[in-house]
Amino acid sequence: MSSAKKRKVDHECRVFNDDRTRKYFFANFNNRSVCLICRDTVAVFKEFNLKRHFQSKHSDFCRNLNESKLHGKAEKLVQKLMHEQTFFVKQSAAQEAATMASFVISHKIVKHSKTFLEGEFLKDCLIAVSDILCPESKKKFESISLSRRTVVRRIECISEDLTDQLGIRIKSLLWYSLALDESTYISDTAQLLIFIRGIDDQFVITEELLSVEHLKDTTTGDNLFESVSSCMERFGFPWDKLVNVTTDGAPSLTGQNSGLLRKMKDKVLAMNSSHSMLSLHCIIHQDSLCKSVLNLKHVVDPVVRVVNFIKARGLNHRQFKSLLSDSESEYSDVLYHKNVRWLSLGKVL
């Protein structure tokens, strides 16, 4: 025996009649019956409900007015309601614009490696400029929040959003490769940089810095493998789609028995026996090795001596900059040379 479903008046799909605006001072706003006098809402467009509300609460409202004046009064109340709603919409839009401007400026600050206190300085500049160019828009610039704590929160939100976007793109990758670089920071903090490059079914290439893993203790192959494994598990990487890993020639990375590459290859084979992972040597590190093999000392030493002569004394440096200015050179100063990046010798010359 099936029980009949109870009928709900909210699901009757009644249509609002415009005549009820003049009779009972109700208007249809966002599919709701709104009283133009007290701003109360009635659940259903049923005439009996609107009439009962009007007679019970506003029976003395405009009793002495004729039909034409009642119609005009109702139109004025409708326009007033629409004006109120438009006012709140404008306030919300202005606040959203100020929040968006705060996010944009915070992104510029972190992109150019500026301190978080730069936001307050930029806000003072914007207010000063607006006071001269557009005084009527000064309040809009004052409403932008750029305090130090706000900039930190904005940057954290941007970072989380970029991470979420990268996680969504990662799920659509058919194959991907990793580039690993283990180095020590200036404060003696060991860190592992993990770059990812992958392609999806639409041949769209994704190349991003995936993570910077800090190594608190030793930097053996086991420690590096634990860091890479935790990063891949955090982003949901499948091991069977890893096709290539690029590293330099460090023993902890390329060791035959306990190196990182050996452990990653074993992991890939365990996940998919028909798939093998390739390993490549970093091209920048190969360039550095080529320099030591080619023995370019007769080229490197004169360039280093010239740069040191120019930078050793302030007088030499000022005269060299004056020479570049007089000759209308493309560069205004000399560039420093690094022995690791031997290809920069051409830029120095």
From TrEMBL:
Span of domain SPIN-DOC-like zinc-finger: 24-63
Q: What transmembrane ranges does the database entry give?
A: none
- Pfam families per the record? zf-C2H2_12
Taxonomically, the superkingdom here is Eukaryota
PANTHER family referenced in this protein's UniProt entry, alphabetically: EPM2A-INTERACTING PROTEIN 1, GENERAL TRANSCRIPTION FACTOR II-I REPEAT DOMAIN-CONTAINING PROTEIN 2-LIKE-RELATED
Descriptive protein name: SPIN-DOC-like zinc-finger domain-containing protein
Task: Please name the taxonomic classification of the source.
Answer: Eukaryota, Metazoa, Spiralia, Lophotrochozoa, Mollusca
